[in-house]
């Protein structure tokens, strides 16, 4: 009952409450992005949703227009502090997690929840083991178990394991703990970037796939 009724009800109520905040942030961010490079305000990434259905996930664009999609050897997204693909505005958005705020729109549309497994790119479906697919039984989240406690410090396999754990143990208490852990993580700026990872080291030691977004 919590997953199918109360969780969704909480999502809708809090999304509506936060909508004025989103609109204020949007007005500020749109000016900053347009002043810097006049490119689009949003980045719409194709992501895996509930039951494996794909959807467009909203984010404030933090990278240059047509920046290549760099992936690490395990398929996870490259996250480096000195990433040359980031715009100046985007670097601030990423550090403060403001780039994630537009996902309120995904919550209202029913694509996402405030708390759930972070949605993977659609090509990750073929990477899942059969036992991993349980994480597709719940709505993906703006934040989740992995995001709150590990963020970018865990590799692709560990992230999936954490998301599977959440999907199997979802409850109001766990969601509450994740919410508070996320606030601490964002305020303290924990694990924003992949640890001990710089551009040159990544290019030398990790296999990257350059796919135009």
Question: Top keywords for this entry?
Answer:
alpha+beta; two-stranded antiparallel ribbon; disordered C terminus; transmembrane helix; membrane; phosphotransferase activity, for other substituted phosphate groups
Write the layout of secondary structure elements.
Layout: H1 2-36, E1 42-48, E2 54-60, E3 68-69, H2 88-96, H3 103-109, E4 113-115, E5 141-143, H4 145-149, H5 156-169, H6 172-187, H7 199-205, E6 211-212
Parallel strand pairs: 4-5
Antiparallel strand pairs: 1-2, 3-6
Structure, described:
By secondary structure, the chain is α+β, with helices and mostly antiparallel strands. It has one domain (2-212). The protein has helices spanning 2-36, 88-96, 103-109, 145-149, 156-169, 172-187, 199-205; strands spanning 42-48, 54-60, 68-69, 113-115, 141-143, 211-212. A two-stranded antiparallel ribbon has the order 1-2. A two-stranded antiparallel ribbon has the order 3-6. Helix 1 (2-36) runs antiparallel to helix 3. The protein is globular, with a radius of gyration of 17 Å. The chain starts with a helix and ends with a strand.
Task: Offer a concise description of the structure.
The protein is of the alpha+beta class and about 210 residues long. The chain contains 7 helices and 6 strands; from the N terminus they run H-E-E-E-H-H-E-E-H-H-H-H-E. The longest helix is centred in the N-terminal third of the chain and has 35 residues, at about 1-35.
């Amino acid at each position: 009952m919590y997953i199918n009724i109360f969780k969704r009800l909480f999502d809708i109520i809090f999304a509506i409450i936060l909508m004025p905040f989103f609109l204020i942030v949007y007005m500020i961010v749109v000016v900053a992005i347009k002043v810097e490079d006049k490119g689009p305000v949003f980045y719409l990434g194709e992501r895996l949703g509930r039951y494996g259905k794909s959807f467009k996930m909203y984010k404030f664009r933090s990278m240059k227009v047509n920046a290549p999609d760099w992936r690490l050897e395990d398929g996870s997204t490259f996250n480096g502090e000195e990433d040359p693909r980031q715009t100046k505005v985007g670097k601030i958005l990423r550090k403060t997690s403001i780039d994630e705020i537009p996902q309120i729109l995904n919550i209202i549309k029913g694509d996402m929840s405030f708390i759930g497994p972070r949605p993977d790119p659609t090509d990750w479906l073929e990477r899942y083991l059969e036992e991993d697919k349980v994480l597709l039984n719940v709505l993906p989240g703006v934040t989740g178990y992995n995001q709150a406690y590990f963020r970018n410090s865990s590799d692709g396999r560990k992230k999936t394991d954490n998301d599977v754990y959440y999907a199997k143990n979802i409850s109001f208490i766990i969601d509450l703990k994740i919410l508070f852990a996320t606030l601490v993580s964002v305020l303290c700026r924990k694990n924003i970037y992949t640890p001990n990872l710089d551009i040159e080291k990544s290019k030398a030691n990790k296999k990257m796939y350059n796919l135009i977004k």
